[in-house]
Amino acid sequence: MSMFGRRKIKKAAEKEFLISKEAPFAVEEAYKSLRTNLIFSLPEENCKIIEVTSSLQKEGKSITAANLAISLSKNGSRVILVDCDLRLPTIARKLRIEQKPGLTNLLFGMNKMHEVINHHVSGIDVIPAGDLPPNPSEVLGSQNMKTAIDHLAQHYDYVILDTPPVNVVSDAVILSKHASGVIMVVRSGKTALENVKDAVDTLKLANANILGFVMTDADEKKQYYDKYGYTYKQKKG
Ligand SMILES: Nc1ncnc2c1ncn2[C@@H]1O[C@H](COP(=O)(O)OP(=O)(O)OP(=O)(O)O)[C@@H](O)[C@H]1O
Ligand SMILES: [Mg+2]
Hints:
It is a single chain. By secondary structure, the protein is α/β, with parallel strands linked by helices. The chain has one domain (3-234): Rossmann fold. Helix content is 42%, strand content 17%. It has an 8-stranded mixed beta sheet, with helices on both faces. Helix 10 (193-205) links the parallel strand 6 (181-187) and strand 7 (210-216). Helix 2 (25-41) crosses helix 3. The structure holds adenosine-5'-triphosphate (ATP) and magnesium ion.
């Protein structure tokens, strides 16, 4: 198969995982139930900065973050998705927008807020990662970052933060201090319990509020769920 052919297939596959008019009914329904469960697991007020993370790479964090954002906006909420993966950002590519100017350009004062916000066709607003800095953890932990997120929280009903994996770099843990709650993505058949435990322990040590778990790639023995399965478990206690 030619390189060109492979690329085309990958692009088509990624499109399939985003909620759109062509998305299978079951996918949209799965995200609706994630949305409902999330809304129920949030404390009543001032709790709308949601961080999406996982223990390892390629578990479906970014797609879950994007689809959750789109699903919340379909419910009538004003939603902004922020790509806080300043190492391997994928939100811009997934949503077909430019990667810069973005978050880092805003934080370093190179661009104004309105210049880094993209109004996406899906109905959500999106801030891509921007130029990649040499010190992502410091940037994400900075006072400027906190100020930016707090500002967004005043103008949107939900601020969804896409992040790198917890067991690989400290960015998601650092960012959890700015978030009202954290959703953990677990990829069925790939993530070992040990990995999830490590990530949860690390987040708890930082006093993160873990809202629950989303399982991607789950085998629900149903036609669509085989391929696009999402389940959501609320944490106990
Ligand atoms: N529910 C799912 N079922 C099957 N494949 C999925 C699912 N969600 C995502 N994928 C696929 O897994 C790959 C990784 O997805 P994604 O980029 O969202 O993961 P990630 O956890 O954000 O990765 P990274 O650690 O690189 O940021 C993509 O190719 C995507 O198409
Ligand atoms: Mg990602």
